[in-house]
Amino acid sequence: MIPFINLKSLHQQHADEINQAVQRVIDSGYFILGPEGDAFEEAFASYHGVKHAVGVANGTDAIEIALWTAGVGRGDEVITVSHTAMPTVTAIEAIGAVPILVDIDPSTFTIDPKAIESAITPRTKAIIPVHIYGQAAEMTAIMTIANQHNLLVVEDCAQAHGAKHKGQLVGTFGHLATFSFYPTKNLGAYGDGGAVITNDDAYADRMKRIRFYGQSSRYTYTERGTNSRLDEMQAAILSVKLKYLDEHNARRRVLAKHYDTCLSQLDIELPSEHPDNHHVYHLYVIRTDNRDQVMSNLKEHGVGTIIHYPVPIHLQASHQDLNMPQGSLPITEQFAGEILSLPLYIGLSEAQVEQVAHALEQSLC
Hints:
This protein is α/β, with parallel strands linked by helices. Helix content is 40%, strand content 15%.
């Protein structure tokens, strides 16, 4: 059996350091907004070469608080993709803004800059490019569009910790950038967690107030806020794992290239790395016309797979009020019926990649 994900193998590599970090938090008696959180925020900001990182409770809150901080609110339009995890859109709607969903580039699965331009209206306030599967969106073109139209850019980096576009880390192009530390991410906590990074001092100060009920000092509230804090335990664990992020991403790239070699002769579409990008392969996603049958056959061969994502957001029952019927986003809709994510995680071996490839070859017959 080769599961789709195995988080135990990653923990085992760094168990001693992580256990020491957890014990350090327990011994300190300090569990919320303490020194571990401060240390992680400083390290995460330093990794990206930005001035500020603000820890929050999860990646969804990160997007909501980023938009909230920058003044996006009720009735404002925010352009993003339908081909993303639901939290991207959930966060937009949480502040009363309106998600405007556009199609993706067929080679990268990320937002199509041309589609952004055609979707801009007088009510457009922001763009959220999603760096999906570990591949960077075309940020140079996106920032040009945003600057021309005076639009806020909030990068959704939940699946792309350490990815680059033209040698520059994702999260450092826009006005703000959001991250999820859900356990399966390239940089994952042992529970929920998230962060927002920025070079804007005012944004950073406001986010720190908003995440703590709007509090500017103890029991003094200068604005309305919410409760969204990265706890000390998760911060301590993330500080350990951050040291190994580039090493782990390099390993993911090795495994992805081995998949490329092993699958190159099969009648499937392999993921591509845009020549301007450094892909970190949060997911290794293939395309095949007979996806559902292939997925079933792989299960019979003991290989776990997942679809990211089988139903685009604009076609979900929960979002029929967007009035985007079948056919609205043709590339997104086509790919939703063809994509399949293969196992790729720290601890997977080259031999297991070869097993998956062999099982896939048999599953296509």
